[in-house]
């Protein structure tokens, strides 16, 4: 069985450099899907995020955009 790292909302917020309230209100159930990115042990209220699933999706989305060439004024060229 594959080992998974379960994180609380506060621990995930520290890893991603987001506020935990933003994760709860904006990302949960829109970006993070229950059963894929997070679970509730024994049907309880407390949510645990699966770090490996979140990390895999972040890398997949980042790689799908292709190479980006930084330009002046903060713009990028999709080369």
Overview of this protein structure:
With 79 residues, the protein is of the alpha+beta class. The protein has one domain: Multidrug-efflux Transporter Regulator, Chain: A, Domain 2 (Orthogonal Bundle), CATH 1.10.1660. The chain is built from three helices and five strands, in the order E-H-H-E-E-H-E-E. The strands form two sheets. The chain has a three-stranded antiparallel sheet. It has a two-stranded antiparallel sheet with strand order 4-5. The longest helix is centred in the C-terminal third of the chain and has 14 residues, at 51-64. The N and C termini lie far apart (40 Å).
Question: Which residues sit in consecutive blocks of at least 5 with pLDDT less than 50?
Answer: none
Please bin the fraction of helical residues.
25-40%
What kind of oligomer do you see?
single chain
* β-strand amount: 15-25%
Annotated CATH topology: Multidrug-efflux Transporter Regulator, Chain: A, Domain 2
Question: Biggest sheet: strands, sense, closure?
Answer: 3 strands, antiparallel
- Radius of gyration, taken over Cα atoms and rounded to an integer in Å: 16 Å
Coarse structural class: alpha+beta
- How many domain modules? 1
| Sheet with the most strands: spatial strand order | 1-3-2
CATH class membership: Mainly Alpha
Overall spatial form = elongated
Number of strands: 5
Through-space gap between termini: 40 Å
Order of helices and strands: EHHEEHEE
Mean pLDDT: 87
The CATH architecture is Orthogonal Bundle
Number of helices: 3
